[in-house]
Amino acid sequence: MENGHLDEQRKFIDKWQMHILLSRHTVPDLHLPYTALWSKEALHSFCEHYRCLYIKPTDTWGGQAIARIQQVQGHWIVKSPSDEPILLSSVEEIWNVLNPRYQTKTIIQQCAPVASWMGRPLDIRALLQRDESDRWIWSGMLVRIGGENSVVSNVQVSFGNVQPPNQILPHILKSRALYPQVVEKIQTISYALCSKLDEIHFFEEVGIDYGVGRHGDLWLFEVNTNDALGGPSHELFAQLQDRRLYDEIEARWRSRQMNVARELWKDLFHSAEADNTSDASSLGDL
Ligand SMILES: Nc1ncnc2c1ncn2[C@@H]1O[C@H](COP(=O)(O)OP(=O)(O)O)[C@@H](O)[C@H]1O
Ligand SMILES: [Mg+2]
Questions:
Q1: Do the Cβ atoms of 132 and 255 come closer than 8 Å?
Q2: Final residue of a domain: which of 57, 88, 111?
Q3: 97: exposed, middle or buried (Cβ count in 10 Å: 0-12, 13-18, 19+)
Q4: Burial classification of residue 114, based on how many CB atoms lie within 10 Å of its CB (0-12 exposed, 13-18 middle, 19 or more buried)
Q5: I want to staple 63 with a disulfide (CB 3.0 to 4.6 A). Which of 20, 152, 166, 204 is the partner?
Q6: Ligand 1 atom with minimal separation from the 53 CA
């Protein structure tokens, strides 16, 4: 059933399944961009309702495979992170250009009405990890600012940069006084998202990408979890001038891994011991 299910092989929830999960089980104060699966009908309908759209494959990362479509004076500009913008004059043309690129499962999404930084896309990356008692811990957050002319805030693909939230967010909000409330709201929402995910799978780490509106409204771009291919980046935090958060994140991860290894050894030891006892008892039966 389509209910935010886990991909059993990769052990992850793709962008479409995540959208389904969070639109069925809403998190208070969190806005989800209007989203549908990529199809010609969906493209026509979204182009009628919105002047700006994102196209995103459901299982990629790093901002690489994303395109933004923007309506400007009766034309459409299609822009991807690594290509020059293309000017098109009809929705049919957009379909003909983009559909060959999106042959795997893909979503189409309204551009969230969020703030940018000097014309560059901006998002907030929050990271949560588990502590030694399996509880979710708020590890920290940072702001990513995409490079010039970029349509994504992922720093590697766009040659962007990361900044501490307190140096950016108070300036993009309508009033600086909103900043502490926004921080608190991000934390509350992030914990709520982790609790929702707990119902699907036992993830170790969760990295959440938020956009923020001028009034402090929060829009979800993406939820990243650890899976068979990797996990949410720690290295982003190493790019902050103050490396303390990064050191804490790495230390928490290492101690968690040590614990997992210790538990594994304990289990192995106990099952070996149980094997010996059952061998002994079956021998005794003879
Ligand atoms: N609906 C949207 N509205 C505005 N910006 C978006 C939207 N979706 C994605 N973006 C921008 O593109 C970036 C990458 O999108 P995301 O869904 O996180 O994909 P990826 O898995 O490639 O990181 C976001 O961090 C944000 O800057
Ligand atoms: Mg992302």
A1: yes
A2: 111
A3: middle
A4: buried
A5: 152
A6: 1
**Do 81 and 211 share a domain, yes or no?**
no
Report how many domains make up the chain. Answer: 2
Closest atom of ligand 1 to CA, residue 153: 27
* 34 vs 81: which has the higher pLDDT: 34
pLDDT tens figures, 78-132: 999 988 999 999 999 999 999 999 999 999 999 999 999 999 999 999 999 999 8
Q: Is 165 in the pocket of ligand 1 (CB under 6 A)?
A: no
- Average pLDDT across the chain, whole number: 93
Beta-carbon count within 10 A of 40 CB: 12
Place 270 in a pLDDT band, splitting at 50, 70 and 90.
Answer: confident
Testing ligand 1's pocket by substitution, the residue of 31, 56, 220 carrying the most ligand atoms inside 8 A of its CB is 56
In this structure, the answer to whether residues 16 and 145 fall within a common structural domain is: yes
Question: Which CATH number do you get for residue 107?
Answer: 3.30.1490.20
- 142-148 contact pairs (CB < 8 A, 24+): 142/236, 142/237, 142/240, 142/245, 143/117, 143/167, 143/168, 143/169, 144/236, 145/117, 145/120, 145/121, 146/120, 146/121, 146/122, 147/120, 148/120
Strand order of the sheet with strand 35-37? 35-37, 106-110, 52-57, 67-72, 75-79, 86-88
Tokens 């999404």 belong to which residue? 109
Residue 151 lies in a domain: yes
Instruction: Output the pTM of the full model.
Output: 0.92
